[in-house]
Every structure is written in structure tokens, then in C-alpha cells.
Amino acid sequence: MTNPTSLKQAVIWTEKALQQGETPDGNYILARLHLKSGNKEAAKKYATQAVKLAKEKGMDASVPEKLLLETK
Predict the structure, then answer these.
(1) What residues make up the domain containing 57?
(2) Averaged pLDDT for residues 25-42
């Protein structure tokens, strides 16, 4: 997906989903969308949260950690 309008709408939907309950996957998706939209600061914020939540839940955090490196 590269259409700016579609990316913006996807961010809105994902943010609403995260309001229902935060998950590592939801934060990862939102970070990926922000990165794709060119918003590295927001991408870093959500990738960091995805890593934190994954580690807290004993899940593999390697994918969001890799994304976090892309935000630098």
C-alpha cells in the first residue's frame, strides 16, 4: 500500500483497534504504517512499544526490534 490516503486511513483504524487493547502486533503494524508514511518518530514510538509488550508477554521481539532499527 503506497496511497497516502489509504495509509492515513489504515493508521486511524489501527489506532482505534489499539484503543480496544494494546498488543505487540498492533503496535508493530502501526509502527510499520507510520514508517511507510514517512513518520519515523511515530514509527519509533510504536516499534519501541511493540518490543516492550512482546518481551513482557514472553514473545519473540526480533521482528519489532528489526523495525526499530529501520527508524534510526
Answers:
(1) 4-70
(2) 97
